[in-house]
Amino acid sequence: MKLKSADSNKEINEVFNYIRGFNLNYPDYSAWVDKCRTELISGYKKAFYVKVSGNIVGSIIFQRHKKNKNILEIKNFRVSDYFRNKGIGTLLYSSVEKYALENKFSKIQVDANEDNTLIMKFLVNRGFKIIGKEPLYSQHQIEVIFQKDLR
């Protein structure tokens, strides 16, 4: 198991190919994934990923919050089903938190579909608090917004 930062175009394309297989019923997900690839190449977004036996099994994509530059926002966080509960999500998240601290962010923010109890439990166990609920991507789907203070 090896954690890497997606820095080269080759690595970004590998992450792109990995995340596009995880639609999870988000509206316009494929358009978002295409935009995400462009933003990773430009450096606007960043990504960490984990490979096992040469294949990506988890990734986390993040950026500076658009409205509050002191907040690091996680935009996409995925671990392949078979590799869940094996420490990969913890490794990915811990790397983002370390990045946030090193780069002087005061908070980390992330949203999750209200039906995704697995990720919500993961976040609460790492000190995140619910700060709101709203239909961010579709009027028919409520997202729970979490934040964690780093200071």
Explain how this protein is built.
The relative contact order is 0.14. The protein is globular. By secondary structure, the protein is α+β, with helices and mostly antiparallel strands. The protein has 4 helices and 7 strands. It has helices at 9-19, 29-42, 88-102, 117-125; strands at 2-5, 45-52, 55-64, 71-79, 107-113, 129-138, 141-149. Helix 3 links the parallel strand 4 and strand 5. It is 32% helix and 38% strand. Helix 1 runs antiparallel to helix 2 (29-42). It has a domain at 2-106: Aminopeptidase. A 7-stranded mixed beta sheet has the order 1-2-3-4-5-7-6, sandwiched between helices. The N and C termini lie far apart (31 Å).
Q: Would you spell out the secondary-structure blueprint of this structure?
A:
Blueprint: E1 2-5, H1 9-19, H2 29-42, E2 45-52, E3 55-64, E4 71-79, H3 88-102, E5 107-113, H4 117-125, E6 129-138, E7 141-149
Parallel strand pairs: 4-5
Antiparallel strand pairs: 1-2, 2-3, 3-4, 5-7, 6-7
